[in-house]
Amino acid sequence: MSGAAFVQVLRRRWLALVLCVLAGVAGGLLLTERTPRVYQADARVIVNLPAASNVTQAGQGLQLTAELLPSYAELATSRLVATKVKDALGLPESAETLRRRLSAEATPQTLLIDIGAQDGDPVRARSLANATAAALADAVRELQTGRAPATAVTVEVIDTAITPSTPVEPRPRYNLVLGLLLGLSAGVALALLLDALDRTVKTATQVEEGVGAALLGVVPKAKGKSRLVADDSSASAEAYRALRTAVRFVDPDDPPSLLMVTSPSEGDGKTTTAVNLALALARSGVRVVLVDADLRRPSVARTLGLEGAVGLTDVVVRSALLEDVLQTWRDELLVLPAGALPPNPSEIVGSQGMANLLGELRDIADVLVVDAPPVLPVTDAVVLSPQVDGVLVVVRSGKTQRAATAEARRRLNGVGATVVGGVLNAASTSTAAGYYATYRPVQSGRQRGAAPGPATKRRLAR
What we know:
Layout: H1 3-12, H2 14-34, E1 39-48, H3 55-76, H4 79-89, H5 95-99, E2 102-106, E3 112-119, H6 122-143, E4 154-159, H7 172-197, H8 204-211, E5 215-220, H9 235-248, E6 258-262, H10 270-282, E7 288-292, H11 300-304, H12 312-316, H13 322-325, E8 327-329, E9 333-336, H14 345-349, H15 352-362, E10 367-371, H16 380-384, E11 390-396, H17 402-414, E12 419-427, H18 429-437
Parallel strand pairs: 5-12, 6-10, 6-11, 7-9, 7-10, 11-12
Antiparallel strand pairs: 1-3, 1-4, 2-3, 8-9
Helix pairs in contact: 1-7, 2-7, 4-6, 8-17, 9-10
């Protein structure tokens, strides 16, 4: 995974990352709150060597004592010394329990031993450290019994312990940093795991792999309830204008004049895309006819506030004339509603009457935008796709499954349909911003790798 892809994953899964970091910090604070306070007091003793009669004996004695010094440190935490401390202070704890609260360390290159004692009470910690230092000196003296005083090794307390003012446990700063790092690590791991388990389409690469063609546009998630955004100044409106440009330049030598808009599944936003794309094309000076070919759940007329009782089906079955059912929206867009819902939608869109209707519409418009049903639930879009110049597949970010997108492409390719590109709908702000920040020449399904060129408007005789 590249660095940019990794950052995109974290941006998509920012909530999981933030929650894990907060949980880690909360855990560090909770650990600090729940950890009992422990104080440590330290005393220092020195190991005295016997007097030497010459330099050689002094060097040998010093070397021997340095080698034995770690043993004296171990003796400080032995059961023998712990028992002496217990008896001296009259403590209720067992010697074994007391041992675990004592520590001793020999300072390298010296004859010094640092003795530490921990307790929840700072005064008791001081008493333990001083009592342990005294008990060590007493134990060493007992071990030297039988030796002449001039040759005996002794231990002397040189620094008595003082009452500690601050505890050694808990460590708030350490716990907080540790919790932050653990939370961050867990958040990154969870973000990567969630992204790996998520089989929906979310990125430009996933759209292109799914539809088998270039991504022509990324539409950010709309903030308002209105489905008509192509005539305002929002980010969604700009996305549809960019999509209009991409569609017109998808193949400079042969731009599609009959474009079908569909999606793998329902709820992906195909109708919203078709309507806004048609409006964006119409506002560029192109004569556009928007056709509602979704004969199962038509919504173009409702979206534009037009009458949808008669329309496409009536013309195909020859119960009405095209000029009688073709409507104008705001004097800039021609709209052909779906009309009455037939019992056999697939047969209607695949009939010769439908082909004749599309041919007639080609003669009165520069561009036809056809809103078709989704590919997977019904066969209407697959049946209609060979009759159009290109198919635009709309997928919804975070909803459309990658497997569904691939299956829709397989079905369209199976009938020889030309998929010119895909649209990522309802994308996050970061995804949309990243796409347009790296906007590049469009590669179409019909001519991948083609560089954008000037558009050639084709206005047929009316």
